[in-house]
Write a structure and sequence with these properties.
This protein is an alpha+beta fold. It is 35% helix and 39% strand. The protein has 3 helices and 6 strands, in the order αβαβββββα. It has helices at 2-22, 44-49, 120-143; strands at residues 26-39, 55-67, 71-77, 89-95, 98-102, 110-119.
Length: 144
């Protein structure tokens, strides 16, 4: 009886164990892209105490702003040909200090370096503030 119970328990818990190993995908939308410097990711101690990341290579890499439900990520591709479609919902997961992105149920993931993270409510507040400043500046210019 114990053996049967153990097998049933193992069979039922196997999907949860696999999901924990590969990571649970979140959904997000890419709202912005521009070409910037490629960033060398580095490892642990060097990233924590080494100052800002250093650009590598003369070729620009894509930099994306990815909106999820609670967090806004600014991610940078490692190569210039790592492209993600704009305004589409993509699946992503955090994996070893990187963001692994899967587009359109692709079989492989593209890994991106996380350049910046911000709580979405704070990002929206900051964006609203910038928009108000821009409108005030335009109104001031129109009065001249």
């Amino acid at each position: 009886m114990k053996r049967a119970f153990s097998l049933i328990f193992l069979f039922c818990s196997l999907p949860a164990l696999l999901a924990a190993q590969i990571g649970i995908y979140q959904h997000g939308t890419v709202v912005r892209m521009h070409m910037g410097d490629c960033i060398f990711a580095g490892h642990g101690f060097m990233v924590a105490f080494g100052g800002p990341p250093t650009p590598i290579g003369p070729e620009p890499c894509p930099e994306y702003t990815l909106l999820s439900d609670n967090v806004v990520f600014v991610i940078v591709g490692k190569l210039s040909n790592q492209l993600i479609p704009l305004a589409e919902t993509i699946d992503f997961r955090l994996h070893k200090n990187e963001l692994a992105v899967r587009v359109d149920d692709a079989k492989h993931e593209a890994k991106f370096t996380i350049k910046e993270m911000m709580v979405r409510s704070e990002w929206e507040r900051l964006k609203r503030h910038i928009d108000e400043k821009m409108r005030a500046s335009e109104d001031h210019e129109a009065e001249r």
